[in-house]
Design a protein that fits this description.
The protein is mostly helical. It has a domain at 23-77. Helix content is 80%, strand content 0%. The radius of gyration is 18 Å and the shape is elongated.
Length: 93
C-alpha cells in the first residue's frame, strides 16, 4: 500500500508539465480530483464496507485511482495530438 504513495510525485510533475503546455483543465483534474473527489468518496465507501481497515485503504486507493486518471489523460493526449499532427490523405482539388 505504501508503494502507491511513490506515484504522487510523478503525478504532480505530469500536472506541472500540462500547466507549462497551457492545458489548465488537465492540470486542474490531476491536482484537484484526489483531495476533493476521490479521497472523500473512498473514505465514506470503504469505511462503510470494511470499517477501520477500509478507512486506511482509502488513501492509497485514491492514489491508484488518480494514477489511472493520469494515464488516461496522457494516453488521450497522445492519441489526439498524433491524430491532429498526421496529414490528411485526401487532396483538395
Amino acid at each position: 500500500m505504501t508503494a502507491l504513495y511513490a506515484i504522487t510525485g510523478p503525478i504532480l510533475v505530469i500536472a506541472m508539465h500540462f500547466q507549462a503546455m497551457g492545458h489548465s483543465l488537465r492540470t486542474a483534474v490531476l491536482t484537484l480530483v484526489k483531495p476533493w473527489l476521490l479521497t472523500p468518496v473512498l473514505i465514506v465507501v470503504l469505511n462503510a464496507l470494511s470499517g477501520l481497515p477500509g478507512l486506511w485503504l482509502a488513501f492509497p486507493a485514491a492514489d491508484a485511482a488518480l494514477l489511472l486518471v493520469a494515464l488516461t489523460i496522457i494516453l488521450r493526449d497522445r492519441v489526439f495530438d498524433t491524430a491532429l499532427a498526421t496529414p490528411d490523405t485526401k487532396e483538395v482539388s
